[in-house]
């Protein structure tokens, strides 16, 4: 039995929530290992919709342990609200079902204010497109060694010196930006107010996970965003503030790389992106509008409309390599039902030269032009299909061509948001 890492193979929003939920039936533990509440997951189970942002997708399944690993940044107020929301939907959340790493970095109100101010004052065209929820500034403080961590709330006598260290950076920064000053007392009061509600979930997650691994428990590592938003390997600077590739599953959980046996990448049968940044196959016409409308391409948490375009095999092939992806879960194939022809990007033209990789240079990324292969579409429906026999022949040809272009097999095929509308080709936990 292999422990499995699930990563987005595009710019996020690929449908990881459903796939993680589907796989969690086989898992004993589900771990979030990076990001914050800037990435939403939608789960549809027996007609009931669960919208999660910070909680691991496994939380909706009874008998599973959900873990928020040390690589995540946690807004304690949002976490409390999210727990309360799903409890109203009948999900029981206790310290036996949710464990949060004692060394997670906390997102504070000053992080949210700084994030929003930066984004709103940037000139159009250079805006990153953040969710303004404080994720980036929190990661900055983590790397700058001045962050407040969850374990600090259990030691209130030491908070003052840690808050002072934090404000030594933020006070001059806020003055320079023209932001209102923030007091150490207000930060302390806010932290101590939420401490009783969040501290019961705190624990040594790396130790717990290692014990469970040695006991033969199956672990599912759940990433947020997508590999193309990785701060190192993505479309920098239009990226998130953490590493989103599969290697972060080890760092962000405290388990060594040998704990990982299979990497499953999630990719839509087309491409979407939220926020600014390059998007070679983006469609600005009625076809892009049609894909977006049929796919309900709006952010789970922000409501922002996603940019839509044709499937980019160059980008996905690149993320297959940077994340060591063993197999792909292809989602939303049904959105392409009824198209007479479908374009797939197989390469780029850069200054007249054909290339088969996405360049790291921001200027070069803006200049690349997609080279398309035109594939015949299908008139039948793939929606709700649960076996290959349910698919039109041309839809199967489309999937097989994608496998060839990205140099990875399709392990799962999702044909609707419903959990059971999934075609299993290879079981990541068993194959």
Descriptive account of the structure:
This protein is of the alpha/beta class and 431 residues long. It is built from twelve helices and 20 strands. The model has no long low-confidence stretch (mean pLDDT 92). Helices cover 30% and strands 20% of the residues. The longest helix has 19 residues, at 159-177. The strands form five sheets. It has a ten-stranded mixed β-sheet, with helices on both faces. Strands 14, 16, 17 and 18 form a four-stranded mixed β-sheet that branches. The protein is globular, with a radius of gyration of 22 Å.
Structural class: alpha/beta
Give the end-to-end Cα distance, rounded to a whole number of Å: 8 Å
Radius of gyration: 22 Å
- The low-confidence runs, each spanning 5 or more residues with pLDDT under 50, are none
Tell me the total number of β-strands. Answer: 20
Kindly estimate the percentage of residues that lie in beta strands according to DSSP: 15-25%
Overall pLDDT: 92
Largest sheet: 10 strands, mixed
Oligomer: single chain
Defining traits:
ten-stranded mixed sheet; 20 strands; 431 residues; alpha/beta; four-stranded mixed sheet
């Amino acid at each position: 039995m292999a422990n499995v890492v699930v990563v987005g193979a595009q710019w996020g929003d690929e449908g990881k929530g459903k796939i993680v939920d589907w796989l969690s039936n086989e898992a004993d533990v589900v771990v979030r290992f990076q990001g914050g509440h800037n990435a939403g997951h939608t789960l549809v189970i027996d007609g009931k919709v669960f919208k999660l942002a910070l909680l691991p997708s496994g939380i909706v399944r009874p008998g599973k342990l959900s873990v928020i690993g040390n690589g995540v940044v946690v807004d304690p107020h949002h976490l409390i609200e999210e727990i309360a929301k799903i409890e109203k939907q009948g999900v029981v959340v206790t310290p036996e079902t949710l464990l949060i790493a004692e060394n997670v970095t906390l997102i504070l109100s000053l992080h949210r204010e700084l994030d929003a101010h930066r984004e709103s004052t940037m000139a159009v065209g250079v805006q990153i497109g953040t969710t303004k929820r404080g994720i980036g500034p929190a990661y900055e403080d983590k790397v700058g060694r001045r962050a407040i961590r969850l374990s600090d709330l259990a030691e209130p006598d030491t908070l003052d010196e840690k808050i002072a260290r934090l404000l030594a950076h933020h006070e001059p920064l806020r003055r320079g930006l023209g932001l209102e000053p923030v007091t150490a007392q207000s930060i302390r009061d806010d932290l101590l107010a939420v401490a009783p509600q969040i501290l019961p979930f705190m624990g040594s997650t790396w130790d717990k996970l290692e014990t469970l691994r040695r006991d033969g428990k199956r672990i599912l590592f759940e990433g947020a965003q997508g590999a193309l938003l990785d701060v190192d390997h993505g479309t920098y600077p239009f990226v998130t503030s953490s590493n989103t590739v599969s290697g972060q599953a080890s760092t962000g959980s405290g388990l060594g790389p040998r704990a990982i046996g299979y990497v499953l990448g999630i990719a839509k049968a087309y491409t979407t992106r939220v926020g600014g940044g390059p998007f070679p196959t983006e469609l600005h016409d009625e076809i892009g509008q049609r894909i977006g409308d049929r796919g309900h391409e709006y952010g789970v948490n922000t409501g922002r409309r996603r940019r839509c375009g044709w499937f980019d095999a160059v980008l996905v092939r690149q993320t297959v390599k940077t994340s060591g992806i063993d197999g792909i879960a292809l989602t939303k194939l049904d959105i392409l039902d009824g198209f007479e022809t479908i374009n797939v990007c197989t390469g780029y033209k850069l200054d007249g030269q054909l290339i088969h990789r996405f360049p790291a240079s921001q200027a070069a990324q803006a200049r690349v032009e997609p080279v398309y292969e035109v594939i015949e579409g299908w008139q039948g429906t793939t929606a709700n299909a649960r076996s290959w026999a349910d698919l039109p022949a041309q839809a199967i040809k489309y999937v097989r061509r994608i496998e060839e272009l990205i140099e990875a097999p399709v392990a799962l095929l999702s044909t609707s948001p419903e959990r059971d509308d999934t075609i299993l080709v290879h079981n990541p936990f068993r194959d």
